[in-house]
């Protein structure tokens, strides 16, 4: 054994001290490995069914152990969608597809983070459920739970008292979007498991092929077949993008040229080479399929009959990339003053997450092929694309104007009033007594206390378009986490953890600047009854009211008079004055042209009367 000299010992000590100092100086937003670990915990917290003994989320218990039984099918398992307890098949399948894509691209990075097996478990929990849900070649169960009754209750999954009605698509009630997305999820997962469990991969692929054939043979929108889908996860983009997406993933999983031929033949008619988009989501798959097909081209598969079509897919993929990194001329994705991509007011984080994933994988495709991104404003190297993606992740994890991490449990400052039933009510292991439907609203939903259960790894909906965020459980647009937002980020966290950047290397931000105006005019109200049902012998009506700012200036203060209300109301905050309501706590201003959405439940009788009592502009 070599002797350790005094000089060498001092050098070692110095290195240890420097490493410790570096670790202390590293900000929470740069802890990508920790974020990756936490994101997988969120998927554990969202599990439905019989939970394994080795789970890491100990405040959750078994739930929904008879799902599907009343309809003669076993639908136990799967994932709860968000802060509620409905199992929506469409976004859940998308989440599993994105988890699988992340493993396929960043498998080595996940191994380095010692979390690959947990990622595989998260995928398998979803695919096992999809296999159960595919009971016949042309039958797929796509939802369990009733959104309306579920949203009228605030209770733990372990205490659920709401109907667990299951809904299916079949040859007479087609649903090509959800079927093709489920096929994509199973195909992507089959490729993931090919080297770990080949028999399971074969099973997944068999179901994927059958479900895709079903989706393609019996074409139709699933939200036309199922009213329960239209209310919560309607398909604005139609089903043609999912058919391309499903076929592309089957080609990726099998190498079967028939699937690539399907994509090429339908590329134009289905919009794959025609649509230039600036979002990627559970609904709109065009950017995803364009990137996936670009991979084929960049990997050298662009010869022969498919070359021209693949080049068109790449052109549209690069439109998306350039729009995200703000180099697409006048066609860029909107950003907040702090630099966050901002696509929609409702759960914007899902669009940030999906965009960052596509940016990261596309940058890697370019780097492997020795190519660059050619935008209208500049030619961009792969490293610059990754730097932009990193800036988005850093914002999400706390490098933003509020120094707020939008991942729960990450860093020193994060949301503690998450719009999530299980997080907000004490665990069944802490309070054994059943928490009733309305008791949950009274005792916990409206509580100002922090969540008793920290929903570690959840990505909430995120800040508003001005980088503002109010930590309020009632703020379902911005405080609710979803599977769709969490899934794409998992792979990105692993990728960035394997290639950390020095603190401060990602782009910075400028604080928001508000412009004051004086003027005013009444809001324009549009009132609609969006649903009705009978509960305990009483007719209930769900009313949705949109109030559009037509005064031409930002409204900074608002007081509404709402008369004749007989049930709960969401989207406004009650004041001390009777029948008077103001902005919800998460809204501080309503810009010109923007809309405020108000939803209320009326127990029989006419609609409530809503009028502006007071307002200010500024």
From TrEMBL:
Main location: secreted
Reactions this protein catalyses: Endohydrolysis of (1->4)-beta-D-glucosidic linkages in cellulose, lichenin and cereal beta-D-glucans
Catalytic residues (UniProt): 419
An example Gene Ontology biological process: cellulose catabolic process
Signal peptide coordinates: 1-25
Claim: Membrane is one of the keywords in the record: no
Enzyme kind, highest EC tier: hydrolase
Keyword Hydrolase in record: yes
Domain Carbohydrate binding, residue spans: 523-605
Molecular-function GO terms, alphabetical: carbohydrate binding; cellulase activity
UniProt cross-references to InterPro entries, sorted A to Z: 6-hairpin_glycosidase_sf, 6hp_glycosidase-like_sf, CBM_49, Glyco_hydro_9, Glyco_hydro_9_His_AS
Enzyme nomenclature, EC number: 3.2.1.4
SMART domains (UniProt xref): CBM49
UniProt subcellular location: Secreted
Family statement: Belongs to the glycosyl hydrolase 9 (cellulase E) family.
The protein, known as: Endoglucanase
Source organism (scientific name): Triticum urartu
Gene behind the chain: LOC125534495
